[in-house]
User: What shape does this take?
Amino acid sequence: MLLGLVPSVTLPGVAAAETQEFKLNNGLRLIVQEDHRSPVVVSQVWYRAGSIDEVNGKTGVAHLLEHMMFKGTKNVKPGQFSRLVAAAGGRENAFTSRDYTAYYQQLEKSKLPLSFKLESDRMANLQLTKEEFSKEIKVVMEERRWRTEDKPQSTVAEQYQSVVFQAHPYARPVVGWMNDLENMTVEDAREWYNNWYAPNNATVVVVGDVKAQEVYKLAQQYFGPLKPRKLPVRKPQLEPAQKGERRLIVKAPAKLPYVLMGFHVPALRDPVNDWEPYALEILAGVLDGNASARLTQNLVRSQQIAVDVGAGYDLTQRGATSLFELDGSPSEGKTAADIEAALLQQIEDIKQSGVTEDELNRVKAQVIAADVYQRDSMFNQAMQIGQLETIGFSWRFLKDYPEKLKQVTPQQVQEVARKYLTRDNLTVATLDPQPIDPNAKPKGRPSDH
Amino acid sequence: MLIKKLYAKCLTGMAAVLLSVSAQAAVNIQQWKTANGAEVYFVENHDLPIIDLSVNFAAGSARDVAEKSGLAGMTRYLMTLGAAGMSDEEISRRMADVGAIMGGELDADRAAFKLRTLSQAREREQALDIFAKVLQQPDFPQATLEREKARAIAGLQEAATQPESIASKAFMKALYGKHPYALDDGGEPETIAALKRDDLQAFYQQHYGAKGAVIAMIGDMTREEANQIAERLTAKLPAVDAQPALPTVAYPERAVDERIQHPASQSHILIGYPGVKRGDADYFPLYVGNYILGGGGFVSRLTEEVREKRGLVYSVYSYFMPMAELGPFQIGLQTKREQSAEAMKVVEQTLDKFMQGGVSEAELIAAKQNITGGFPLRLDSNSKILDYLAVIGFYKLPLTYLEDFNKNINSVTTAQIKDAFSRRIDTHKLVTVVVGGN
Assistant: This one.
């Protein structure tokens, strides 16, 4: 049986990974974390350019440009980038978010120069042709259909986002509105590339079985000659304060209702002196941070109102603002309204009665363990460094982060709940499930192919 | 915590990247049996203060019968929700107290239970204590079963409205007919509703013996500690013989072309044929050939023809899923419904050309360069090695599987690829499922 005490996990003695930071004369930043467990390397190039930097009428251009980055340069023909990486035994991909666009290769360690050669080339020499653009924009529209239009909960999230935010660029979908994609031109892509793809807007992150000084030399060789560029002015575009609850309904083919709701809350600005973001992070952990957390325990297991529930908070955001979000699907016989009420009651309980030390210790145990577990993946370590640096924090924050969370008190958790999780600051989106065509019956017809 | 949320915000620009593998990174696998016959595959590694375990039983959904479809999955899951008098809440709370993560998965062949814990004594002992009880003293609480049945049914009903799920369920059914690989591992709403606690207990007693069980272990423990852990996890398992082999898969007698209506903007298209077994003599030629056809991400023929040249899809792929019996060979894509016929035609032409003309020497060299050159990436974390240990053990692959991997890849010839595909895939009898479309 369980002992009465719930001691928190203590951090075992792990040799801290060796991380070093460099800056080239052209403004490019390089962060190298040595990890000698395996003869491999992950190399990532992060650009401080995401959908947050887009303007109306050109939504999705950050993501489209990410696709076009594989379409050839003055030196590498369309399609060759991927073939060169493949021939070196590499894996590669790229991703675009609201806050950044990033490209990566995973390689056997001796192949790192290939990564730098190809990435520095496409940082400066991309060839954007009408022909390649006209094919790739169709691919992106297919991606939008697959990712958003035919997925009911994704559609809810997209519509919700544009109601939660009105002035802030986070209102717009990363993949772009379909009509903007339909009207996008190769000139839009070129403008984006010329604006943001420059060494002084990029961070290179390398994690693996390498020597930091050697990687620095390699970076100087390949990225060093690139010319910096004057970057466009970025406007803050802050969201005005919300003046009352907002609601929306989305109809889509589905069976289960779904509710997604969010409150405006602060993102981390000052890692040393802020405390509210850490308290919000712990609050999310108390609600949904482990298998025994409140939402699942109370709503799925005990009350059986929900088949699924969740809560989340993003601490770090370039947009200087964040959301505290809850979502869930009702169980048979319950409605979206029941789920909404039950989720809000969980918040109310914390506002009234706070959280226990036991719960906090459990959340902190996850934080400490997760900090150890993530060291098993070089890729995740590189992701964390790149994300933080691109959003505007130092990778050093990763070392302080567990300690910052450990300092959060039950009172602070209750205080942020009371301060921010209020009805006037709430947006609720509901999925209203529609039947798929009732006449649609599967009809098998065996035939010769 | 930071990283989990990161991915939710990201759009990946490219199709899922193929699992690729690496070369000289040697893995020293130690192998033995527990006192009552479970197989242990162990790699000692003290780089990180972590222990990873995976315990595998021949208790996947292929052990279900149609009337009780979903029983295997429900049994596996319920084991984690009540054991030795501990409730689901208690189990999850005690695991969370020490930062341990219990997980697992079920496929047609295998029921797997996984544990990741810090290796320090207090955390490790508490996590192992619960994990051992989950495996050996499951309670299958009645009320928990009823709750989980309701949740599973809700999930199945939702899946029955979503094109991707509809397509894959119909595909497996059309491909495997009466073979248990046709059964959905989640079951059917009616069969789940009818499951009784007795069914779960009987399934457990019959399928969770130590004989045939495979324990994979990696991390911060000595061989002696690993041995003690393995004994502790298996000593009290039901006394039952190893499971019989699954029935063999019958090849389709004729082509199947099934169209299912759906209002989605894209058609979801799956095309396939019974493919290959684990340890199959044709495995390496088929694997390398498929890399060229549709497994090699951006450099495959399917991606080149359907996406790069014509912009018809975001993702098109093909794969062989080797299983205990013939696992599926599958081609998949999604495309705007109005152009589904066009996309399917390009896929068909690409496949026909591949089957008739085979691959070129240049393509073969490029494939080998990628697969062998990327071998170290397959083994660059404990969690990846753990999965290999489980597969090697469960499917009785040679202990030298990883060591020999590049040699096996390099020995494949263009003639072997053409020969293996022509013997194994009959393009006149393919199974095609299209959900949505005109």
User: Anything to note?
Assistant: Chain A has 15 helices and twelve strands.
